[in-house]
Amino acid sequence: MAAIYSLFIINKSGGLIFYKDYGSAGRMDTNDSLRLASLWHSMHAISQQLSPTMGCSGIELLEADTFDLHCFQSLTGNSK
């Protein structure tokens, strides 16, 4: 079972709404957490636009040697 080290909630404009660190090692300061949230939002948005597949929802999972970074999108707040 995978552990959750951090939780970021980002709005659709890329602003960090909520950040909680659940791990004890490697805590990030406020600026680092803002940078990471902004970078992840930008990569996700760009991947949606560059995808050759119509209706692509962007990057859903980034796997690294020591962690996995998942993207879950809520359906709330969508207005058309």
Automatic annotation (TrEMBL):
Location in or out of the cell: Endoplasmic reticulum; Golgi apparatus, cis-Golgi network; Golgi apparatus
Main location: endoplasmic reticulum
One Pfam family this sequence matches: Sybindin
Any one Gene Ontology cellular component term annotated for this protein: Golgi apparatus
Superkingdom as given in the UniProt entry: Eukaryota
GO biological process assignments: endoplasmic reticulum to Golgi vesicle-mediated transport
Subunit structure: Part of the multisubunit transport protein particle (TRAPP) complex.
Family note: Belongs to the TRAPP small subunits family. TRAPPC4 subfamily.
Protein name: Trafficking protein particle complex subunit
Source species taxonomy: Eukaryota, Viridiplantae, Streptophyta, Embryophyta, Tracheophyta
